[in-house]
Write a structure and sequence with these properties.
105 residues, Ubiquitin-like (UB roll), four-stranded mixed β-sheet, alpha+beta
């Protein structure tokens, strides 16, 4: 029942990365500033995306530390979330994915 209540709560706004509770994560979205905040202990990718005002309905390539994971993935301290929209068009036939390598972060 406690988990059920957590899912129904409104998404929390990003908190200061310096506060001590939860996992510190970074959220990188193409064309936007990097967000650094903490998710509650045991927080999921879906919760972090809500905190960062990212829609989870298709059209986005979402990865944690460069790997595709489920929205229920439990985030760990130091995780890097990257969000890149799928882009169509250009010379190639079909959808073309833009890849971002964030090695410098």
């Amino acid at each position: 029942m406690v988990e059920d209540q957590r899912q129904r709560q409104a998404p929390r706004r990003p908190r200061d990365i310096k506060s001590g509770e939860g996992a510190a994560v970074r959220l990188v979205q193409l064309g936007k500033a990097i967000q650094s905040f903490r998710v509650p202990e045991g927080g999921t990718l879906e919760q972090a995306l809500s905190m960062g005002d990212i829609a989870t309905r298709g059209g986005m390539d979402i990865r944690v530390n460069g790997k595709k994971v489920a929205l229920t993935y439990a985030l760990q301290d130091g995780d890097l979330i990257t969000v890149v929209p799928f882009i169509r068009g250009g010379v190639a036939a079909g959808p073309v994915r833009v890849k971002i390598y964030m090695d410098y972060l």
